[in-house]
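FAQ: What does a multi-protein file look like?

Like this. Sequence, then tokens, then the next protein.
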Amino acid sequence: MTASSASEDSTGSWLHEDLHWLFARLKQGLATAESAVVREHGMSLWGYTVLMAIVEAPARTQLALAQAVSVDKSKLVAILDELEGAGLVARRPDPADRRARIIEVTPQGGRALKAARGDIEAIEDRLLAGLDAGEGTVVRKALRRLVGAPLLAIEDGRPAETGCPPAGP
């Protein structure tokens, strides 16, 4: 039995009905495929995520950026160091607060992000290709809704466990 038929034939299985496992397996598969692609553009998968967030909100503080992408702020520094070292972002002092840094995407970073985004979209299209017409749109819409108020409600005010905790000792 293949992995795809195992999942489809396992309705009623606790494991295959568990949302955490389903999302974890989906994330694992996407990370495997997408990590290889973004490395070709000079970044890690976390670097790609951070780069997208910077493009969407260029004057964002590092703390706001860490919260937006669900990464520990100390780990964000390492991700930004990696992106800066690759010439994809630049950090400059915030004129309003010299202790803070404004992170900007460089022209090279913009080109790399655009190319990586095209490759990522191709992977996502391949993933969703097995769905019926319109189901991919429904999946994306449902996921966008779930990461909003419903997710906040089940977190119940507890501090978020970031998807990218700080590096261990």
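And here is the next protein:
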Amino acid sequence: MIKKLGILLIMSVGVVSGCSNSAMEPEEINPEIDVCEVCNMGLAHEHYATEVVTADGEIYKFDDIGCMDEFLEMEPLLKEESAAKKYVRDLDTGEWVELEKAYHAFHPDFWTPMANGVVSFKDKEGAEHYVEEQGMGEVLDYDSLKKHEWSWGQ
């Protein structure tokens, strides 16, 4: 009996540890219950949602890339590369893309949930196509985005 309990305990620990997010991967948005960490707005517009996934498995969700940037300003330790991965979604496909690898289209008149005017894409071509289609805006890579002046910071 004790042997069976020991085996059950070991299996339980394996299942629980298997559920942790050690790969620092994003999780899907549930628009029915998920809210932004910064503004507490529901994540109804999933293709604009962003996430920060920490090394210890915490997941922070945001309705707009601007809210994520504001959160990271308040949590400077999470800006360190090994502390967390930051994800945006490709506006066209909804695919999760690491922030550092994504391209963005910006114009103050582009609609986003928090009116930051920055939309994300998995590749430069997607961002360029969006700017061309809209007839305004500019394409930002990660380095340009880091220098971007957010409306919340003005």
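Q: Is there any per-entry metadata?
A: Some entries carry free-text notes. For the entry above: The helical segments are 2-18, 65-74, 124-134, 142-147.
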